[in-house]
Amino acid sequence: MSSPTSLLIRRARIYLPTSEFTIGDVLIRDRQIVEVAPEISPNATSTREIDAFGLTLLPGVIDPQVHFREPGLEYKEDLFTASCACAKGGVTSFLEMPNTRPLTTTQAALNDKLERASTKCLVNYGFFIGATAENLPDLLEANPTPGIKIFMGSMHGPLLIDQEAGLEAIFKEGKRLIAVHAEDASRISQRRKQFAGIHDPAIHSQIQDNQAALLATKLALKLSQKYQRRLHILHMSTAEEADLLREYKPSWVTAEVTPQHLLLNINAYEEIGTLAQMNPPLRSPHDNEVLWQALRDGVIDFIATDHAPHTLEEKAQEYPNTPSGMPGVETSLALMLTAAMSGKCTVAQVANWMSTAVASSYGIPNKGAIAPGYDADLVLVDLNTYRPVLREQLLTKCGWSPFEGWNLTGWAHTTIVGGQLAYHEGKVNTEVRGQALSFS
């Protein structure tokens, strides 16, 4: 499956930068798109062709929030297994979070991850630097990184920054993007005591309730406004937060939502128990609908999975001893395209939310569009066939999905990373390697 000098995709339904679609050909050479046209004549001696008739060509998914567990927690997932799952899911780039062991809070730890990724990752990669109370110089100088990750709640140890003074010290220094996990730690702590002794995992959504999320998001917005600081709100989960941003969202603030918070809700606890446990928790059907509307209206800017795998053995423990988090990179694109085919949104919106808007927001050059000069990070999807999510077919090391049994369309037929076939017709090419992303 190794790629020749150039690759020609023929007769695809191509998503254009104008958000329109056209039937045509795409020529790729030396990792980049060189031509998009109704018909392209190949150089027969050096060009591999893919007949994409009946398939839709989209920019490769950029997943801007994942937890791939390496180093230190490789028994749950590692960079190789996670990037195989990415390739199968049409994800060509990812931004990974700092809560590994050791924590990614220094340039040395960042360099270690970049080195590991260069030898293991089938797709492109970037790594956040994590904020602690002690590492402000690292936050200002670490490079390359998409931004600073702050856990305002749902975290223990050095990465938890839950006091306003500590947060303000970070917001007022430098210009780098700050991405927040917005949950109020003190409210969660108080409610954890209030509901102690309850082992039904559904209580998780009451302990870490909508108010806990709203309080933290309000504080982050206040500090962002005070210092005109670029702010990104990770995995927004509540109607209240969406309403807050609809009322007041400065131009330098962005927000994301996960497929889980759009498509699952508190009813999932009855069906899949602790597999539905994540942070921030699943909410009500009303929250689902308000988040969908905010996404369609541009109040929420894009999609991320918060891929956070744990083993089935860990998830089988009794709540609250169970870890929060679920895998997502393998199913996110198919989930969103299935939603599009059901009328929730359009395929063009999905392409924007899962690629174009992410590249724009994080200043990732030459990604997120199918046009000459852009990197050849692409996914061919089949919107005519439905297949169920099956545990035995998943490539994530944890081996399960909260969407098991869901019948989805838009599965990746071919995933192209830097002009190379990372996934094609059901097979992963483990020889392909992505590259480190840059951020302007």
TrEMBL record:
GO terms for cellular component: cytoplasm. It comes from the Bacteria. InterPro entries: Amidohydro-rel, DHOase/Allantoinase_Hydrolase, Dihydroorotase_CS, Metal-dep_hydrolase_composite, Metal_Hydrolase. One of its GO terms (molecular function) is allantoinase activity. Residues 56-421 form the Amidohydrolase-related domain. It holds the Pfam family Amidohydro_1. Keywords: Hydrolase, Metal-binding. GO terms for biological process: purine nucleobase catabolic process. Its cofactor is Zn(2+). Belongs to the metallo-dependent hydrolases superfamily. DHOase family. Class I DHOase subfamily. Catalyzes the reversible cyclization of carbamoyl aspartate to dihydroorotate. This is Dihydroorotase.
